[in-house]
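Hey,
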Amino acid sequence: MITYKSSDILKRASQLADLENSSFISWNEQINLLNEAYRKLYQIVINNSDKYYLKTLKVEELVKVDEKMNQCFYYLPSDFYQLSAVTVGADKSRLMRKSPSESVASKRYEIINNQICFYGGSDANETEIEYFPIPQTLTTHAPDRKLETVEDLILDCNNNGFLCVNEDGGVYVRNVAKGIETEPVEIGVDLEEIEFGLLGRKYAVVQTTDSVIYVDLIKKTFADISEGLFKLAKKDNEIYFFKNTEENIFNVYKESEFSEGTFRRKIADGLKITVPEGYDMTNKDVWTFSDGFFFVYVPYKETGDDLRIWECTSEEITPSFEISDPTKNTVLNGDLYTINYDLCCNGSKFISDADFYSLIGFNKADPNTGYGVTVLNDDNELVVKSVYTDTELSFPSNFYFNYMAYMLAVAYKTKQNADSSGLIALADAEEMAFYDTLNRDVSNTVRITNVYDGGSW
Protein backbone atom coordinates (compact mmCIF):
# COMPACT_ATOMS: atom_id res chain seq x y z
CA MET A 1 0.00 0.00 0.00
CA ILE A 2 1.06 3.57 -0.72
CA THR A 3 0.11 6.13 1.92
CA TYR A 4 -0.83 9.72 1.16
CA LYS A 5 -2.58 12.51 3.02
CA SER A 6 -5.22 14.89 1.73
CA SER A 7 -2.68 17.71 1.89
CA ASP A 8 -0.39 15.77 -0.51
CA ILE A 9 -3.18 15.59 -3.11
CA LEU A 10 -4.05 19.27 -2.67
CA LYS A 11 -0.40 20.28 -3.03
CA ARG A 12 0.07 18.24 -6.22
CA ALA A 13 -3.16 19.61 -7.71
CA SER A 14 -2.04 23.17 -6.94
CA GLN A 15 1.26 22.49 -8.74
CA LEU A 16 -0.54 21.11 -11.79
CA ALA A 17 -2.89 24.12 -11.88
CA ASP A 18 -0.12 26.69 -11.24
CA LEU A 19 -1.75 27.74 -7.97
CA GLU A 20 1.04 27.06 -5.48
CA ASN A 21 1.02 29.37 -2.45
CA SER A 22 -2.22 30.93 -3.71
CA SER A 23 -5.28 31.82 -1.61
CA PHE A 24 -7.47 31.92 -4.72
CA ILE A 25 -9.52 28.99 -3.42
CA SER A 26 -10.88 28.98 0.13
CA TRP A 27 -10.39 26.09 2.55
CA ASN A 28 -14.07 25.12 2.36
CA GLU A 29 -14.05 25.10 -1.44
CA GLN A 30 -10.84 23.06 -1.47
CA ILE A 31 -12.48 20.45 0.73
CA ASN A 32 -15.59 20.32 -1.47
CA LEU A 33 -13.53 19.96 -4.66
CA LEU A 34 -11.28 17.36 -3.02
CA ASN A 35 -14.28 15.21 -2.12
CA GLU A 36 -15.79 15.63 -5.59
CA ALA A 37 -12.52 14.33 -7.05
CA TYR A 38 -12.49 11.46 -4.57
CA ARG A 39 -16.07 10.47 -5.45
CA LYS A 40 -15.17 10.48 -9.18
CA LEU A 41 -12.21 8.23 -8.47
CA TYR A 42 -14.38 6.00 -6.28
CA GLN A 43 -16.98 5.56 -9.02
CA ILE A 44 -14.33 4.77 -11.64
CA VAL A 45 -12.95 2.07 -9.36
CA ILE A 46 -16.46 0.62 -8.97
CA ASN A 47 -17.26 0.83 -12.69
CA ASN A 48 -14.05 -0.98 -13.56
CA SER A 49 -14.83 -3.81 -11.11
CA ASP A 50 -11.75 -3.13 -9.00
CA LYS A 51 -12.26 -4.73 -5.60
CA TYR A 52 -10.06 -2.46 -3.49
CA TYR A 53 -12.99 -0.85 -1.62
CA LEU A 54 -15.19 -3.96 -1.69
CA LYS A 55 -16.73 -5.29 1.55
CA THR A 56 -18.42 -8.65 2.16
CA LEU A 57 -21.12 -9.33 4.72
CA LYS A 58 -23.14 -12.43 5.53
CA VAL A 59 -26.88 -11.83 5.20
CA GLU A 60 -27.43 -13.46 8.60
CA GLU A 61 -25.54 -10.48 10.11
CA LEU A 62 -28.12 -8.03 8.72
CA VAL A 63 -31.19 -6.92 10.64
CA LYS A 64 -34.31 -8.71 9.44
CA VAL A 65 -37.27 -6.39 8.79
CA ASP A 66 -40.06 -8.71 7.64
CA GLU A 67 -40.66 -12.20 6.32
CA LYS A 68 -43.59 -13.59 4.34
CA MET A 69 -44.17 -16.26 1.76
CA ASN A 70 -41.19 -16.39 -0.62
CA GLN A 71 -39.98 -12.97 0.53
CA CYS A 72 -37.54 -11.97 3.26
CA PHE A 73 -36.57 -8.32 3.89
CA TYR A 74 -33.35 -7.09 5.56
CA TYR A 75 -31.99 -3.63 6.25
CA LEU A 76 -28.92 -2.87 4.17
CA PRO A 77 -25.71 -2.08 6.13
CA SER A 78 -25.56 1.49 7.45
CA ASP A 79 -22.52 2.19 5.25
CA PHE A 80 -24.05 0.71 2.07
CA TYR A 81 -23.35 2.68 -1.12
CA GLN A 82 -23.53 0.38 -4.17
CA LEU A 83 -24.03 -3.35 -4.58
CA SER A 84 -21.46 -5.46 -6.38
CA ALA A 85 -22.96 -8.94 -6.11
CA VAL A 86 -25.03 -11.37 -4.06
CA THR A 87 -23.45 -14.81 -3.75
CA VAL A 88 -24.86 -18.12 -2.53
CA GLY A 89 -23.12 -21.17 -1.13
CA ALA A 90 -19.51 -22.16 -0.72
CA ASP A 91 -18.88 -21.86 -4.47
CA LYS A 92 -20.02 -18.19 -4.41
CA SER A 93 -22.46 -18.61 -7.29
CA ARG A 94 -24.18 -15.35 -8.22
CA LEU A 95 -27.77 -14.65 -7.26
CA MET A 96 -29.38 -12.41 -9.88
CA ARG A 97 -31.66 -9.43 -9.45
CA LYS A 98 -35.38 -10.06 -9.89
CA SER A 99 -36.86 -8.73 -13.11
CA PRO A 100 -40.43 -7.33 -13.15
CA SER A 101 -41.69 -10.34 -15.10
CA GLU A 102 -40.38 -12.97 -12.69
CA SER A 103 -42.37 -14.63 -9.93
CA VAL A 104 -41.60 -14.09 -6.25
CA ALA A 105 -40.96 -17.83 -6.14
CA SER A 106 -37.81 -17.35 -8.25
CA LYS A 107 -34.55 -17.31 -6.33
CA ARG A 108 -33.68 -13.67 -6.86
CA TYR A 109 -33.02 -10.48 -4.90
CA GLU A 110 -34.18 -6.87 -5.17
CA ILE A 111 -33.16 -3.64 -3.47
CA ILE A 112 -36.11 -1.52 -2.30
CA ASN A 113 -35.23 1.79 -0.61
CA ASN A 114 -32.75 0.90 2.16
CA GLN A 115 -33.74 -2.78 2.27
CA ILE A 116 -32.75 -5.89 0.32
CA CYS A 117 -35.43 -8.49 -0.35
CA PHE A 118 -34.67 -12.13 -1.10
CA TYR A 119 -37.22 -14.12 -3.07
CA GLY A 120 -37.82 -17.83 -3.45
CA GLY A 121 -36.79 -18.86 0.05
CA SER A 122 -33.08 -18.04 -0.19
CA ASP A 123 -31.11 -19.35 2.80
CA ALA A 124 -29.57 -16.40 4.71
CA ASN A 125 -26.95 -18.71 6.24
CA GLU A 126 -25.46 -19.37 2.82
CA THR A 127 -25.90 -15.93 1.28
CA GLU A 128 -23.45 -13.03 1.27
CA ILE A 129 -23.60 -9.54 -0.18
CA GLU A 130 -20.58 -7.85 -1.73
CA TYR A 131 -20.92 -4.09 -1.67
CA PHE A 132 -19.05 -0.81 -1.81
CA PRO A 133 -19.36 1.31 1.35
CA ILE A 134 -20.14 5.02 1.41
CA PRO A 135 -16.96 6.88 0.40
CA GLN A 136 -15.32 8.58 3.34
CA THR A 137 -15.26 12.36 3.66
CA LEU A 138 -11.77 13.79 3.25
CA THR A 139 -10.52 16.80 5.19
CA THR A 140 -7.27 18.62 5.80
CA HIS A 141 -5.96 21.24 8.23
CA ALA A 142 -6.84 24.86 7.60
CA PRO A 143 -3.70 27.07 7.86
CA ASP A 144 -2.79 28.45 11.30
CA ARG A 145 -3.81 32.03 12.10
CA LYS A 146 -1.97 34.20 14.61
CA LEU A 147 -4.09 36.48 16.80
CA GLU A 148 -3.37 39.76 18.53
CA THR A 149 -1.59 39.56 21.88
CA VAL A 150 -3.70 39.66 25.06
CA GLU A 151 -1.66 40.73 28.09
CA ASP A 152 -4.07 39.51 30.80
CA LEU A 153 -4.77 35.96 31.98
CA ILE A 154 -6.84 34.03 29.38
CA LEU A 155 -9.07 31.30 30.78
CA ASP A 156 -11.24 30.10 27.91
CA CYS A 157 -12.66 30.97 24.50
CA ASN A 158 -15.98 30.79 22.68
CA ASN A 159 -16.15 31.57 18.95
CA ASN A 160 -14.25 34.90 18.64
CA GLY A 161 -14.53 35.76 22.33
CA PHE A 162 -11.81 35.14 24.93
CA LEU A 163 -12.51 35.05 28.68
CA CYS A 164 -9.85 37.17 30.40
CA VAL A 165 -9.06 38.33 33.94
CA ASN A 166 -7.00 41.47 34.57
CA GLU A 167 -4.62 42.01 37.49
CA ASP A 168 -7.42 43.62 39.54
CA GLY A 169 -9.62 40.52 39.29
CA GLY A 170 -11.83 42.03 36.59
CA VAL A 171 -13.47 39.46 34.34
CA TYR A 172 -14.12 40.51 30.74
CA VAL A 173 -14.45 39.12 27.21
CA ARG A 174 -12.11 40.20 24.42
CA ASN A 175 -13.31 39.83 20.83
CA VAL A 176 -10.03 39.40 18.98
CA ALA A 177 -11.65 39.57 15.55
CA LYS A 178 -13.12 43.01 16.17
CA GLY A 179 -10.51 44.25 18.65
CA ILE A 180 -13.12 45.18 21.28
CA GLU A 181 -13.80 44.03 24.83
CA THR A 182 -16.56 44.16 27.43
CA GLU A 183 -16.42 46.23 30.60
CA PRO A 184 -14.67 44.23 33.37
CA VAL A 185 -16.74 42.73 36.20
CA GLU A 186 -14.72 42.93 39.42
CA ILE A 187 -15.21 39.59 41.21
CA GLY A 188 -12.67 40.25 43.98
CA VAL A 189 -10.28 37.31 43.60
CA ASP A 190 -6.51 37.09 43.23
CA LEU A 191 -5.19 35.63 40.00
CA GLU A 192 -3.28 32.99 41.99
CA GLU A 193 -6.59 31.65 43.34
CA ILE A 194 -8.10 30.97 39.92
CA GLU A 195 -8.07 27.33 38.81
CA PHE A 196 -9.96 27.59 35.52
CA GLY A 197 -12.79 29.40 33.78
CA LEU A 198 -15.51 28.66 31.25
CA LEU A 199 -17.01 31.10 28.74
CA GLY A 200 -20.59 30.45 27.71
CA ARG A 201 -22.84 32.32 25.34
CA LYS A 202 -23.79 35.18 27.67
CA TYR A 203 -22.22 34.16 30.95
CA ALA A 204 -18.94 32.95 32.41
CA VAL A 205 -17.92 30.77 35.34
CA VAL A 206 -14.65 31.18 37.23
CA GLN A 207 -13.49 28.35 39.49
CA THR A 208 -11.23 29.41 42.37
CA THR A 209 -9.63 27.38 45.15
CA ASP A 210 -12.71 27.78 47.37
CA SER A 211 -15.59 29.06 45.23
CA VAL A 212 -17.41 28.89 41.90
CA ILE A 213 -18.29 32.37 40.65
CA TYR A 214 -20.99 32.87 38.05
CA VAL A 215 -20.57 36.10 36.05
CA ASP A 216 -23.38 37.80 34.12
CA LEU A 217 -21.43 39.55 31.38
CA ILE A 218 -24.42 41.63 30.29
CA LYS A 219 -25.79 42.80 33.64
CA LYS A 220 -22.27 43.07 35.11
CA THR A 221 -23.19 41.03 38.20
CA PHE A 222 -21.73 37.91 39.79
CA ALA A 223 -22.60 35.36 42.46
CA ASP A 224 -20.94 32.47 44.29
CA ILE A 225 -22.87 29.34 43.26
CA SER A 226 -20.60 26.72 44.81
CA GLU A 227 -23.15 25.52 47.39
CA GLY A 228 -24.65 22.25 46.16
CA LEU A 229 -22.82 22.51 42.83
CA PHE A 230 -21.00 19.31 41.95
CA LYS A 231 -19.68 19.62 38.42
CA LEU A 232 -19.56 21.92 35.42
CA ALA A 233 -19.87 21.03 31.75
CA LYS A 234 -19.70 22.69 28.37
CA LYS A 235 -21.53 21.71 25.21
CA ASP A 236 -21.92 23.65 21.95
CA ASN A 237 -20.48 26.76 23.64
CA GLU A 238 -23.03 26.76 26.48
CA ILE A 239 -22.29 26.06 30.17
CA TYR A 240 -24.15 23.34 32.06
CA PHE A 241 -24.29 22.71 35.82
CA PHE A 242 -24.60 19.44 37.75
CA LYS A 243 -26.10 19.83 41.24
CA ASN A 244 -26.30 17.04 43.82
CA THR A 245 -29.68 15.95 45.14
CA GLU A 246 -28.22 12.91 46.90
CA GLU A 247 -25.13 10.76 46.46
CA ASN A 248 -24.39 10.18 42.77
CA ILE A 249 -27.76 11.64 41.74
CA PHE A 250 -27.87 14.99 39.98
CA ASN A 251 -30.09 17.61 38.44
CA VAL A 252 -28.70 19.34 35.35
CA TYR A 253 -29.22 23.01 34.45
CA LYS A 254 -27.90 25.13 31.61
CA GLU A 255 -26.73 28.72 31.80
CA SER A 256 -29.86 30.20 30.21
CA GLU A 257 -31.89 28.75 33.10
CA PHE A 258 -29.87 30.63 35.71
CA SER A 259 -31.02 34.05 36.92
CA GLU A 260 -30.28 36.30 39.89
CA GLY A 261 -28.23 33.61 41.63
CA THR A 262 -30.96 30.93 41.29
CA PHE A 263 -31.16 27.82 39.13
CA ARG A 264 -34.56 27.50 37.51
CA ARG A 265 -35.91 24.84 35.12
CA LYS A 266 -33.96 21.56 35.04
CA ILE A 267 -33.02 19.94 31.74
CA ALA A 268 -32.37 16.60 33.47
CA ASP A 269 -33.89 15.41 36.73
CA GLY A 270 -32.56 12.63 38.95
CA LEU A 271 -29.64 11.62 36.75
CA LYS A 272 -27.85 8.74 38.46
CA ILE A 273 -24.21 8.02 37.70
CA THR A 274 -22.14 5.34 39.42
CA VAL A 275 -18.44 4.63 39.06
CA PRO A 276 -16.39 1.47 39.67
CA GLU A 277 -14.94 0.78 43.10
CA GLY A 278 -11.68 2.58 43.72
CA TYR A 279 -12.50 5.62 41.61
CA ASP A 280 -13.23 9.09 42.93
CA MET A 281 -15.88 11.53 41.70
CA THR A 282 -15.19 14.31 44.18
CA ASN A 283 -12.40 16.20 42.43
CA LYS A 284 -13.17 19.62 40.98
CA ASP A 285 -13.24 19.41 37.22
CA VAL A 286 -15.43 19.67 34.13
CA TRP A 287 -17.67 16.98 32.76
CA THR A 288 -19.21 17.06 29.34
CA PHE A 289 -21.91 15.23 27.46
CA SER A 290 -23.54 14.57 24.13
CA ASP A 291 -26.96 13.24 23.12
CA GLY A 292 -27.81 10.20 25.23
CA PHE A 293 -24.56 9.87 27.18
CA PHE A 294 -22.16 11.70 29.44
CA PHE A 295 -18.39 11.82 29.47
CA VAL A 296 -17.10 11.95 33.04
CA TYR A 297 -13.57 12.56 34.29
CA VAL A 298 -12.87 10.14 37.14
CA PRO A 299 -9.39 9.77 38.74
CA TYR A 300 -8.21 6.66 40.53
CA LYS A 301 -8.19 7.27 44.30
CA GLU A 302 -4.83 5.75 45.16
CA THR A 303 -2.73 7.62 42.60
CA GLY A 304 -4.96 10.42 41.32
CA ASP A 305 -3.20 10.24 37.96
CA ASP A 306 -5.52 7.99 36.00
CA LEU A 307 -7.18 10.88 34.18
CA ARG A 308 -9.81 9.17 32.11
CA ILE A 309 -13.00 10.03 30.31
CA TRP A 310 -15.75 7.56 31.22
CA GLU A 311 -18.81 7.11 29.08
CA CYS A 312 -22.03 6.93 31.10
CA THR A 313 -25.52 5.90 30.11
CA SER A 314 -28.07 5.49 32.90
CA GLU A 315 -26.23 3.48 35.59
CA GLU A 316 -23.67 1.95 33.23
CA ILE A 317 -20.20 3.43 32.98
CA THR A 318 -17.34 2.27 30.77
CA PRO A 319 -13.82 3.66 30.24
CA SER A 320 -13.40 5.56 27.01
CA PHE A 321 -10.00 7.30 26.76
CA GLU A 322 -7.50 9.25 28.81
CA ILE A 323 -7.20 13.02 29.18
CA SER A 324 -4.53 15.22 30.71
CA ASP A 325 -6.60 18.30 31.63
CA PRO A 326 -10.18 17.74 32.85
CA THR A 327 -11.03 21.45 32.56
CA LYS A 328 -10.43 21.53 28.81
CA ASN A 329 -13.03 19.29 27.24
CA THR A 330 -16.20 20.11 25.36
CA VAL A 331 -18.73 18.73 22.92
CA LEU A 332 -19.10 20.57 19.59
CA ASN A 333 -21.54 19.36 16.93
CA GLY A 334 -21.77 15.98 18.66
CA ASP A 335 -17.99 15.38 18.79
CA LEU A 336 -15.99 15.27 22.01
CA TYR A 337 -12.85 17.44 22.03
CA THR A 338 -10.27 16.82 24.76
CA ILE A 339 -6.60 17.24 25.51
CA ASN A 340 -4.43 14.28 26.43
CA TYR A 341 -1.13 16.04 25.77
CA ASP A 342 -2.19 15.83 22.11
CA LEU A 343 -5.46 17.48 21.08
CA CYS A 344 -8.05 14.81 20.35
CA CYS A 345 -11.48 14.50 18.76
CA ASN A 346 -13.42 11.47 20.01
CA GLY A 347 -10.16 10.06 21.30
CA SER A 348 -8.25 10.43 18.01
CA LYS A 349 -5.33 12.88 17.76
CA PHE A 350 -5.72 15.79 15.35
CA ILE A 351 -2.95 18.08 16.67
CA SER A 352 0.30 16.80 18.20
CA ASP A 353 1.52 18.24 21.51
CA ALA A 354 4.74 19.16 19.66
CA ASP A 355 2.77 21.77 17.68
CA PHE A 356 1.69 23.94 20.63
CA TYR A 357 2.77 24.95 24.13
CA SER A 358 -0.57 25.11 25.98
CA LEU A 359 -4.28 24.97 25.20
CA ILE A 360 -6.51 28.03 25.68
CA GLY A 361 -9.77 26.40 24.57
CA PHE A 362 -11.96 25.13 21.78
CA ASN A 363 -13.61 28.02 19.93
CA LYS A 364 -15.89 26.12 17.53
CA ALA A 365 -15.90 23.42 14.87
CA ASP A 366 -16.74 25.45 11.78
CA PRO A 367 -17.13 23.40 8.56
CA ASN A 368 -16.87 26.58 6.48
CA THR A 369 -13.47 27.72 7.73
CA GLY A 370 -11.98 24.61 9.40
CA TYR A 371 -11.42 26.44 12.70
CA GLY A 372 -10.89 26.23 15.50
CA VAL A 373 -8.99 25.66 18.65
CA THR A 374 -6.80 28.36 20.24
CA VAL A 375 -3.39 27.55 21.68
CA LEU A 376 -0.27 29.34 22.84
CA ASN A 377 2.82 28.49 20.81
CA ASP A 378 6.40 28.31 22.07
CA ASP A 379 6.78 32.06 21.45
CA ASN A 380 3.78 32.78 23.72
CA GLU A 381 1.68 33.84 20.72
CA LEU A 382 -2.05 33.16 20.40
CA VAL A 383 -2.68 30.87 17.43
CA VAL A 384 -5.95 29.50 16.07
CA LYS A 385 -5.59 26.02 14.61
CA SER A 386 -7.90 23.83 12.58
CA VAL A 387 -10.00 21.16 14.29
CA TYR A 388 -10.08 19.05 11.13
CA THR A 389 -7.62 16.21 10.51
CA ASP A 390 -5.42 15.69 7.49
CA THR A 391 -7.03 12.47 6.23
CA GLU A 392 -4.61 9.63 5.60
CA LEU A 393 -5.33 7.42 2.59
CA SER A 394 -3.77 4.07 1.71
CA PHE A 395 -3.86 3.25 -2.01
CA PRO A 396 -2.83 0.03 -3.81
CA SER A 397 -1.19 1.99 -6.66
CA ASN A 398 -0.18 5.50 -7.68
CA PHE A 399 -3.16 5.71 -10.05
CA TYR A 400 -5.48 6.69 -7.20
CA PHE A 401 -3.29 9.61 -6.15
CA ASN A 402 -2.50 10.77 -9.69
CA TYR A 403 -6.08 10.63 -10.90
CA MET A 404 -7.39 12.61 -7.93
CA ALA A 405 -4.69 15.24 -8.40
CA TYR A 406 -5.57 15.60 -12.10
CA MET A 407 -9.31 15.87 -11.40
CA LEU A 408 -8.72 18.43 -8.67
CA ALA A 409 -6.39 20.44 -10.93
CA VAL A 410 -9.05 20.41 -13.66
CA ALA A 411 -11.55 21.84 -11.14
CA TYR A 412 -9.03 24.56 -10.22
CA LYS A 413 -8.50 25.44 -13.88
CA THR A 414 -12.25 25.52 -14.49
CA LYS A 415 -12.70 27.93 -11.59
CA GLN A 416 -10.05 30.19 -13.19
CA ASN A 417 -11.77 29.95 -16.61
CA ALA A 418 -8.47 28.54 -17.87
CA ASP A 419 -7.83 25.78 -20.41
CA SER A 420 -7.85 22.34 -18.76
CA SER A 421 -7.73 20.14 -21.88
CA GLY A 422 -4.14 19.06 -21.23
CA LEU A 423 -4.96 17.94 -17.69
CA ILE A 424 -8.08 16.11 -18.89
CA ALA A 425 -5.96 14.22 -21.45
CA LEU A 426 -3.49 13.23 -18.72
CA ALA A 427 -6.35 12.02 -16.50
CA ASP A 428 -7.82 9.97 -19.36
CA ALA A 429 -4.42 8.39 -20.06
CA GLU A 430 -4.03 7.56 -16.37
CA GLU A 431 -7.47 5.91 -16.35
CA MET A 432 -6.67 3.81 -19.44
CA ALA A 433 -3.39 2.66 -17.90
CA PHE A 434 -5.32 1.67 -14.76
CA TYR A 435 -7.91 -0.18 -16.85
CA ASP A 436 -5.20 -2.22 -18.54
CA THR A 437 -3.87 -3.45 -15.17
CA LEU A 438 -7.17 -4.97 -14.05
CA ASN A 439 -8.20 -8.60 -14.24
CA ARG A 440 -11.44 -7.86 -16.03
CA ASP A 441 -14.50 -10.09 -16.08
CA VAL A 442 -15.35 -10.34 -19.79
CA SER A 443 -18.99 -11.09 -18.99
CA ASN A 444 -19.39 -8.21 -16.55
CA THR A 445 -21.06 -5.79 -18.97
CA VAL A 446 -23.33 -8.49 -20.40
CA ARG A 447 -24.37 -9.62 -16.95
CA ILE A 448 -25.22 -6.09 -15.80
CA THR A 449 -27.20 -5.47 -19.01
CA ASN A 450 -29.19 -8.66 -18.57
CA VAL A 451 -29.92 -8.01 -14.92
CA TYR A 452 -30.96 -4.40 -15.18
CA ASP A 453 -32.81 -4.63 -18.49
CA GLY A 454 -35.13 -7.25 -17.12
CA GLY A 455 -33.60 -10.37 -18.66
CA SER A 456 -32.73 -13.51 -16.75
CA TRP A 457 -29.33 -15.13 -16.52
